[in-house]
Amino acid sequence: MIGEDTIIARSSSQVTCQMLNELLILQTASGRYYGLNELGSRAWSLLEKPRRLGEIRDALLGEYDVDRETCTRDLVGLFEKLAEKQLIEVTPAASA
Fold this sequence. Notes:
This protein is an alpha+beta fold. The chain is built from 3 helices and 6 strands.
């Protein structure tokens, strides 16, 4: 379960490129591409170094007109999908 103190980091088995208004991520092991919209791309850019979910959320709250609960829920959903595709690594707070 991804929570506020969970550490999120980009996986080493991915490569990214910007294509118009979308960020494309190649999962190198599978050869599959995944696209992120503007908000997902911004969240991804905040992962230049590993960060807590709460840090990412707080940065986005300062940039977008979204409430805390919605932002948290959307980020958890995004990061769960990215973890499932092995594009990020998730470290529970207790293990950090």
